[in-house]
Design a protein that fits this description.
Strand content: 5-15%
Oligomer: single chain
Number of strands: 3
Radius of gyration: 19 Å
Mean pLDDT: 82
Distance between the termini: 73 Å
Largest sheet: 3 strands, antiparallel
Strand order of the largest sheet: 1-3-2
Order of helices and strands: EHHEEH
Shape: elongated
Amino acid sequence: MQTSSNPTRVNRSTGTTDDTAVDEHEAAIRIGMSVYFLRKDRRTKRLIPFYRIGDRILYNPRRVFEALAALEEGGTRPKSSAKKVAI
């Protein structure tokens, strides 16, 4: 019996795994953004990965969250090494 080193997570609210492709409406709900944001992103910046199958657009939630994590900014500020000059 083989065990996976990357266990599949199940979304309790929908009963789907994180590797199940979802449409733009479900993807927007999961990331807390609007469908308009996802559509605009597909036309412009293409920050959020998606699949085009015929005329359908699908998202892999795990890949979407990975893309969003790569865009993360902020956190603790590094200590400034700039010297203060007395006037």
